Structure formats: C-alpha cells, structure tokens
Amino acid sequence: MSCEVLVHNRVRLALHMLREGNGRALLLLHGLGEQSPSEPPAFAAEWTGPVVALDFTGHGASTLPVGGGYTAEILLADADAALAHLGEATIVGRGLGAYVGLLLAGARAEQVHGTVLADGPGLSGGPSVPTSQPVFSLTAVGATPDPYALVELGRDLRPPDYAVIFTRMAVQRSSLDEPITLTARFRPAWLRAVAEELGVAEAASISEALANYRA
Question: Which residues 6+ apart lie within 8 Å of 81 measured at CB?
C-alpha cells in the first residue's frame, strides 16, 4: 500500500492506494473513529480500476487540528479534494463516510459515478433538529482518532430534508438512473428520507451494489 499526501489549505490528507488498476477509481470513505484499511476489502475484488481510501481530517495519517471544529461539511471538503485529485470515482462510504459520500454525490454529481451507503460507525450522527449542546473541553492526546472528532461528529446535525436536497441534486445531474445505492440495514431518519427518493436503489451487499457501477 502506498500513500499520497494531498495538501488542502492547511490540511494534509492521506490518500492511500490500496490497489492499482485501469479505469475509474473506487474511493473508500471510512466510518467515525476509523481509518483507511491496509488492503482492498473483499467487496472490491472484481473492481478493475484503482482502489483508494481517504483518511478524513483527524483520522488515520491525516492532519490532527487543534481544538476540534469538526462538521460533516469539513469532511466533505476532504473528500472533494480527493475526488479532484482522482478526476472521477465511484464511492463506498461506511457510517459517517456514507453521509459524507451522499453530500459529495450531490455536490459533484458529474464526477461521482455511483455512491454506495453502507453501515458503519457514525451513521446516525446527532439530532435531526437544532438543540442546545453542552460546552466541553478535552485533553489532547496528539494521536488519531481525535477525541474532538469523535464527540463533535458523533452529534453532528443530520436533518432529513438537508440529506434529501443532496440526494435530488445527485439524481438530477448524474448520468445514472440510480446514482445512489443503500446497503445499510440501520436507517436513521436522514437515511430513511433518502431511501424514499426516486433514483435511490437498494442492494443486499456492497458487492452487489458495485456490480451496477462497474461499467
């Protein structure tokens, strides 16, 4: 496995090449508190293009900021930098990575050729409506995953109507009839809302979902 460092403003992002290949890249987005795998997962066995994985800010080998300030949109910027480097990609997101993958699918529909939303840590996020949040202070440990990331992204707002906006942008602007596929069994409110939209498919496994995006 090789690693390339992408410089995005003051952030240094680790983009791991798990396997080289020809054609469109498969971009893996990990769950909350996780990091990129060290080898291609089994579901990528038949993918002929490169298989790459991104460490989000505060995770794995990527930048560890001081004092937190994490939101899903910050991670969206991370994923967007990786996509710009790759040119185009099919995305598999687990947990938190699934939510970020959905946002990227809507924001960059012309470059994202299919997005798979799978179970994993951080899938539910925080409340779906604004609430009063406590102020907290953590002791920095200087290692990833950043405790601030775990707390802040674990309670990040996930309004269903917000997720639906990005879903509709993906469906309207993609060249695919079904640019988003759900394999997640756990369905928080935002994901239930996405599942009801036209252009969103369901599959029994990630491998089955990717079979529709390999062409």
Answer: 6, 8, 13
Task: Give the H or E element holding residue 3.
Answer: strand 2-8
Question: pLDDT tens digits, residue range 167-178?
Answer: 999 999 999 999
Question: For the purposes of burial, counting CB atoms within 10 Å of the CB of 135, is it exposed (0-12), middle (13-18) or buried (19 or more)?
Answer: exposed
- Our count of domains for the chain comes to 1
Cα–Cα distance for residue pair 186/176, rounded to 1 Å: 25
pTM above 0.70, yes or no: yes
- State the DSSP string of 14-49: EEEEEE--SSSEEEEE--TT----SS--GGGTT--S
The domain that contains 124 carries what CATH number?
Answer: 3.40.50.1820
Which range of residues forms the domain containing residue 33?
A: 2-211
Helices 72-86, 96-107: crossing angle, 10 deg rounding: 60
